[in-house]
Amino acid sequence: MFLGRKFLHSPVGKIEISGCETGLHEIQLPKTNLPADAAVGGGGTLPAPLQQCTAWLHAYFCEPALTAALPLPAFHHPLLQQASFTGQVLWTLLREVKFGEAVSYKQLAALAGNSRAARAVGGAMRSNPIPIIIPCHRVIRSSGESGNYGGGRLLKEWLLSHERLQKAQVARRGAPAPPLNSPDTDGAAGRSPGAPAVREPASSR
Ligand SMILES: [Zn+2]
Q1: Ligand 1: distance of its center to the CA of 50 in Å?
Q2: Which ranges carry the Methylguanine DNA methyltransferase ribonuclease-like domain (predicted)?
C-alpha cells in the first residue's frame, strides 16, 4: 500500500498529514505555535486523499469560503469506520457544526443522540484523528470558555477567532451576490449548492 506523508505550512505552524490511496489517516497539529520557517517535504506524488487534504487546508486558512465547494478527502482510520459512539460523535460534528459555529460538549452529545454523554464527547474529541477538518475546535465549554484542545488552548482560540473574522468578512461583502431578478435566493447565502440545510446547533437546547 502506498503511504504518503506531507508537512504543510500554515499560519499556525507545521501541520503533518498522512494517509494512503484509500483515505486520509491523520492530521497532526503543530507541537508548538511557533511560526514555521523551513520548507519541508512536499515533493513527489501524493495519494489523492492527501492532495485533497492539502487543497482543503490551504483554502481553510486562506479563503475559507471555498472549502464548502471542495471535496473532503476520504478518511481511512478505524475510529471513523467502526460503529461506535466516538465515531458517531465525530461524524455528527463534521456534518452539523459548520464554519464559524460552536457547540458545547453537551449540545454535541445531544446531536449525536445521547444528551447525557458529554463526558464521552470529550473523550471523542481527544481521539479525533482528523482535527481541523473534523472541527473539534468548535466544541467548547457551556460557560463559553474554549476548553481543552489537542493542539493547545491557544491554537483552539486562534482557529475560533479565524473563523469568526472570516465569517464576518464574508457577511460584510454580502457574498455571494445573488443574480438580479432572482426572487428566490434569499436564505441560501453562504450555503454551498447542494449542501444540506443544517439546524443551528446553538439553538437546539
Ligand atoms: Zn490507509
Answers
A1: 11
A2: 7-73
Record the pTM: 0.78
Distances (CA, A) of 32 to 12, 47, 103, 128: 9, 27, 25, 18
Is 53 a catalytic site residue? no
Element spanning 19, H or E: strand 13-19
CA of 76 to the centre of ligand 1 (A): 5
Ligand 1: centre distance to CA 6 (Å) = 14
Q: Which residues surround ligand 1, an ion (CB under 5 A)?
A: 20, 22, 76
**Ligand 1 centroid – CA 105 distance (Å):** 29
Topology classification of domain 78-176: Arc Repressor Mutant, subunit A (1.10.10)
Inform me whether the pLDDT recorded for 186 exceeds 60.
no
Among 20, 53, 62, 136, the active-site one is 136
Q: So what's the pLDDT on residue 90?
A: 98
The DSSP bridge pattern shows strands 4-10 and 13-19 to be antiparallel
Is pLDDT larger for residue 195 or for residue 80? Answer: 80
**4-69, CATH topology level:** Double Stranded RNA Binding Domain (3.30.160)
